[in-house]
Amino acid sequence: MNAPVKPSDVAGATRREVVVAATLASGALLVGCSPGDLLSVGAKSEFGAFGPFLRIDPDGVVTVVSKHIEFGQGNHAGLAAIVAEELDADWSKVRVEQAPAIAKVYANTGMGVQGTGGSSAISNSWDQLRKAGASAKAMFVEAAANKWNAPAGELTVKDSVVSHAGSSKSATFAELLPDAAKVTPPTTPTLKDPKTFTLIGTDRVRRKDSQAKSDGTARFTQDVQLPNMLVAMVAHPPRFGAKVASFDAAEAKKVPGVVEVYEIPSGVAVVAETTWAAKQGRDALSVKWNEDAAEKRSSDAILASYKDLASGKTPATDKLKWQAFEAKGDIAKATGEAFEATYDFPYLAHATMEPMNCVAQVSMGKAKLTFGSQIPTLDQLNTAKVVAMLPGAVEIETLFAGGSFGRRATFQSDYVVECVEIAKKVGKDRPVKLVWTREDDMAAGYFRPLVHHTVKVTLDKDGYPASWRHRIVTQSIMKGSPMGVPELDETAVEGAKGSPYLKATPIVDGQLIQPDIGVPVLWWRSVGATHTAFAMEHTIDQLAKKAGKDPVEYRRALYTKAGANRHLAVLNLAAEKAGWPNTSADGWTRGVAVHESFGSVVAQIAEVKLVDGVPKLGKVVTAIDCGTAISPDQIAAQMEGGTCYGLSGALFGQVTLKDGTVEQTNFDTYRVLRNTEAPTVETHIVPSGNAPSGVGEPGTPVIAPAVANAIFAMTGTPTSSLPFVKA
């Protein structure tokens, strides 16, 4: 019984709104307008008495409206718990549903657009959802106080029941709902003292989607079956940057079930009655490609060009400049014996369990998308450009997705736009489901960039860094952002920039250069930290050995000097729980690594031994400072998942190009971690009263350097390139 309040957006669009939308689409922002305002032009919305994030039904069921997609990370439970804690709701009666795509209302507070990424779902919703829950609670308390003629300060709420001890009266949310819905929400509701939390931080905060995902009722894009729906597959060029020169669809159209074949900007689409017919039709196509602008280099050649840039063999130019990301002191005055190291990191595939897919319906003045949308606002914008609509008028129904690791968050909405282009050609509001196979995504998708690091460090008389020269060469992920490209691409240097090791070093010269390469790149779980953590942490272990110091003690000294108290705390906790420096028997050796990413600091101590030259892991002791721990169980799950994902990439992950063509297209050639190879991950959480920070990604970057440091302790040989196991 949520009485509607004044809508935040209205049907139709004024002339000004059309101008605004058109201006944004052309790449310009209007002063005084946020991206959320601009990209919501044309949207329609209506919310109940408790606002856009909360609905309470007549039976007392509390529904939390999540602006963040759930694609395996379990954020819905944490988001629901924030509301339920402040509302004092019965946790068993709390549900979660996906928010509509309206950036003006549901924007990520850190991004300015509606989207999930950067391990920010909990952190950017913390204050917002606490206030939503506390406001609703205040409305129920006021309704009960008015009904019973009792002071509001004497009322208590527990498990969706409001009580007054003085009169022994009580009422459920369901009973009070009609009156509570009429109460004006407080503008500044009183929030709980975290010391009084009864739900947050307990093991009761478990996933709300487990049952649905176990019994098959959870809805993913591949599950979508709509009346009269067609299925499409696209033939993509074998090399990035190539275009269709010509094609012959005669054989494809002979395949039973094939309806039509269309050329679209990214390739040739086959539309059919079934997925199998679409695939057979695509296989029967004859396509000639124009490769004049295609990337034809092999990945070895690209890496060699990176090394030439880092060494100075290839000089910088006006168009390709070095950018400082950390600088203090005069590197020319650095003296003493120098330590030097280089590190190479390959392209990596996202390898999501559910490859890319989307369902689109397009007709005159209408467009609807049904799929797992990671950044609905960008998907709306890019769809609007194709169908000539206001961005906010593009309806998106966001479903569960089987993983992303960043893959579904492209600036160009690549596979979404493909689906819309095809649906536009089909027209008449007829649903079209685009299906990418795993081979499609690995060969024609986006990758974690290829990266090269060069590090040169001199030590002081006590064996600690006196100067640190660092060069990073990689592609820019931020290039092409519709919100503008920053002067410095932070995604390439995060984890090196601001490192406590650099804070503790008197002279620092850190620079980045980003050549244009014709390979599409994208964030990969933990983004820049996937390589900077390794470069920093493996360098530190080598410096510790050079100084004749224990690697844990060496880090402690540097953290103390840098004032990095959180790093010190997680290191101490991990060392305590692992029993450092004791070493297990039977050939096991331990390695340590510590890294901060997405606001959280993680330390890991990994047990490693070599079996036929291949690293095998035993137990990984993990300590994390992620602020207030809303769901300890889910934090542990994310540390386990992040560790295994990072380990999979570090051990085996590698995408190589031969003359511009991707050589790995499925799990037979792109090796991933097996269950039998997964380590035991033991997680310990540093108590904290700070606001929550990220947990989805911070567990990923630490494991690779921890393994490398264990191997280094075992063999004395450092690791200069990943993966550990070469193809």
Question: What does this entry look like structurally?
Answer:
Helices cover 30% and strands 22% of the residues. The protein is built from 20 helices and 28 strands. The strands form eight sheets. It has a seven-stranded mixed sheet, with helices on both faces. The longest helix has 23 residues, at 126-148. The model is unreliable at 1-32 (pLDDT under 50).
By DSSP (H or I, 4+ residues per run), the number of helices equals: 20
Total domains: 3
Strand portion: 15-25%
Radius of gyration: 27 Å
Helical content class: 25-40%
Which fold name fills CATH's third level, the topology of the largest domain?
Answer: Aldehyde Oxidoreductase, domain 4
CATH class of the largest domain: Alpha Beta
The H-level CATH homologous superfamily of the largest domain, spelled out, is Aldehyde oxidase/xanthine dehydrogenase, molybdopterin binding domain
CATH architecture of the largest domain: 2-Layer Sandwich
Within the largest sheet, what's the order of strands?
9-10-7-18-15-16-17
Main beta sheet, described?
7 strands, mixed
- What class would the helix/strand composition place it in? alpha+beta
**Outline type:** globular
> Which spans have pLDDT < 50 for at least 5 consecutive residues?
1-32
